[in-house]
Amino acid sequence: MTERIEDFKEFYHVDISTQINNKWKNNSVLGIVKDSRRYSILIKSRDKEILKKRFISEETTRANKKHNKKVIAIIYSYILYKALCDFKEARPLLLCRDVRPENFVINYLRKICNFYKNNDIFNREIKFRKKTEFDVKEKLPKSMAGKYTRKVYQGKIKPDKTLSDLEIEELVNLISKII
Length: 179
Known about the structure:
Helix content is 41%, strand content 16%.
């Protein structure tokens, strides 16, 4: 269903600063924002390096590129899942299109919810920041989460959560089972 542009502000905006694969050696922060309500979760660069060494292929064949996209989508979906577990009020969601294809994100978020038997996380409206979602031809307004995640990434605001070593281990096991 297409929303009206007036509904844009009704969504909790989700954005990620420093995409997961855009510099594996940098931290990444996923933020969820609506008005003054906000939540952020950080994955440390050292943890991203562990995931990269374990699951990302350096060869650039078509199959390997698709495999790498799947791994990145699983990592993103896991971080989003963890954020939504803590920030339950965030509904409906408007995701920035940092991880593509979008159907990978939806598919892996559903699998993660099923894996943890926590389908309540997935029981919310989820849309992507696309003009077609809001039936407009002009550019959409900026994501409310972009500025916030940048400040958290820069260290100006403390993240609400940082993925622990145990959660990274959990993510490694999850990727192994899904892929």
